[in-house]
Amino acid sequence: MIISQLICLLGFVIRLSNAANATFTNPILPGFNPDPSCIFVKEWDNTFFCTTSSFLTFPSIPLYASKDLVHWKHASYAISRGDQLPELYRNSELQTEGTWASTLRYRDGKFYLITSYVSWHDGWGPIILLLTTTDPYDDASWSGPIRFENPEKEIDPDLFWDDDGQVYMSVARGIFIHRVDISTGKILETFTVWNGTGDRNPEGPHIYNKDGYYYLSIGEGGTETNHSAVISRSTTISGPYEGYESNPVLTAKNTDAFFQTVGHTDYFQDATGNWWCVALATRSGPAWEIYPMGRETVLSPMTWDEGGWPIIDPIQGTMSGPLPPANTDLPGDGFWAHGGDEEDFRPGTQIPRQFLFWRPPKESLFKVSPAGHPNSLQVLPSRANLTADSQFEPLEDGMGFISRKQSSSVFQFTVDLEFDPKDADEEAGATVFLTQYQHIDVTVVNTRSCSTGELEQKFRFRPEALGKPGVKVPAARTITVPQAWAGKRMRFTITLDESQTYHFTVAPADKPDEELWMGSASTDIVSGGSGPFHGTLLGVFATSNGGTGKTAAYFSRWRYHPLKQEVESGVFLPIKE
Ligand SMILES: *[C@@H]1O[C@H](CO)[C@@H](O)[C@H](O)[C@H]1NC(C)=O
Ligand SMILES: *[C@@H]1O[C@H](CO)[C@@H](O)[C@H](O)[C@H]1NC(C)=O
Ligand SMILES: *[C@@H]1O[C@H](CO)[C@@H](O)[C@H](O)[C@H]1NC(C)=O
Ligand SMILES: *[C@@H]1O[C@H](CO)[C@@H](O)[C@H](O)[C@H]1NC(C)=O
């Protein structure tokens, strides 16, 4: 009796001490990480797990893990094998195709991730997919997908288990709730429940069962600056749902907040019962013009009293809340969401976990430390360059491009290249890439001299802005590779400064101080346009530009140093790596 009272009291003291607030900074998942869905899983050592959307990037649908809501480590990719979703190999001009918003849930020892693959290939035709795993740290353990019925061609699926064991899948646009058989993907019953407050694009539904109510939270207004999170509730799953009179519960619409487009929320509770909200946001300010990292994942504390509606603190760069104690003890070989790269491609290692392809890769194009070239990443040239064309076959030809996300407002990215092109138009180098139609490249290219007809190696700086007509683009430049540098390993550096201008330089790797400026370009070029849902990637590529060249490019000493995060307009915080 006395002991149990003591334990109760102790519990109370621990709760009180946990209630002390600590500060954290947004975004919690920086760079291209939209549409978050997060859970807290006590059974997995009190760990939070989040997933975000990946569109055409591959491996697809990342899972991140955290013990303290501040330090997030990559856990796995739900789609890491091309045959899980062969549709991802399609050559689609529309760069917004691919895997969209998912919902992550945990039940009885299993993680469930339901998502949609969106394509306009044969007209609008999203496919709803369910993937499951019992080990969130292992790519290979993700099974499926099971393809669900989707008669209304809906997106943004949510999964909810009712107390009686029935499972419901809510979907958008306009919110439908389907009772489903999750072992087969069959729809058993359908309810049309709520269209939001009347704004466009009611989407991103999630259902929570609390205090005798089914709460239905959705986003509306579109994922641009009118984005808002709104909520309704009902005493029965099928409705009628009553909208909250003080909707929206979270938005940056009509504000001058630096974090804009706030919406697409998910809610979860931590070990001590505190509620938290994740959402997507864009660091653009209301002008919403400069946002190279696109939509990122942000966190906010919330209160949700019994029988009441959620109250969520508006999103800011620096916030405070009852965070769990700092803890970076997480398993696996994943990368840190805020971290940088020091990749040397040592013999016997794999392609680093944070590296991404545009669609599933043709694997033979990439090799770590090939014979004769230890400590390098071999990239064989693809016929298609980064812009590609209508003949491009992602599976057969592949794209000789590999990248990582830009995850900070100020950074330095440096990579060395050994490349001795033989044929005309062979090209290799580094890039800031938003989509095939918006990228800024700095390369070595073999060109035919107009005067002599001889092939000449040149450095080339070239912005591609087809995907954003009207944007101001600096002129392309080429300069002949200086005689003294011929045959040397070259160093390419891309930096981004506080003025949001990328700078591109080249140098011999053994004399980095002799660098030559190749060009500078505004982040405007890689904000929005053909990639309105994306964030930029920093990468390297090799191509024959439609020719027959086969010369391999060897990249080495890959360094990505995230330096500062902009957390308020013009306020930059240094990053501790
Ligand atoms: C939502 O809108 C659709 C299409 O306008 C309409 O058919 C449906 O009845 C509406 N649902 C509710 C619950 O208001
Ligand atoms: C936001 O809503 C206003 C008012 O309805 C509308 O005029 C504007 O075009 C919308 N903006 C976007 C980006 O959807
Ligand atoms: C801690 O932060 C939460 C969320 O902002 C707030 O509701 C609460 O009052 C704060 N507690 C203290 C002790 O400051
Ligand atoms: C990319 O390849 C296409 C042909 O596939 C070609 O028209 C275009 O000029 C190439 N781009 C560059 C920068 O060479």
From TrEMBL:
InterPro entries: ConA-like_dom_sf (IPR013320), GH43_C2 (IPR041542), Glyco_hydro_43 (IPR006710), Glyco_hydro_beta-prop_sf (IPR023296), Glycosyl_Hydrlase_43 (IPR051795)
A GO term, aspect molecular function: hydrolase activity, hydrolyzing O-glycosyl compounds
Active site: residue positions: D45, E203
GO biological process, one term: carbohydrate metabolic process
Signal peptide coordinates: 1-19
Gene3D superfamilies: 2.60.120.200, Glycosyl hydrolase domain, family 43
Record site: Important for catalytic activity, responsible for pKa modulation of the active site Glu and correct orientation of both the proton donor and substrate: D156
Keyword Signal tagged: yes
Domain (Beta-xylosidase C-terminal Concanavalin A-like): residue spans on this chain: 344-560
UniProtKB keywords: Glycosidase, Hydrolase, Signal
PANTHER family linked: BETA-XYLOSIDASE, BETA-XYLOSIDASE C-TERMINAL CONCANAVALIN A-LIKE DOMAIN-CONTAINING PROTEIN-RELATED
Family in the record: Belongs to the glycosyl hydrolase 43 family.
Name of the protein in question: Beta-xylosidase C-terminal Concanavalin A-like domain-containing protein
Annotated organism of origin: Clonostachys solani
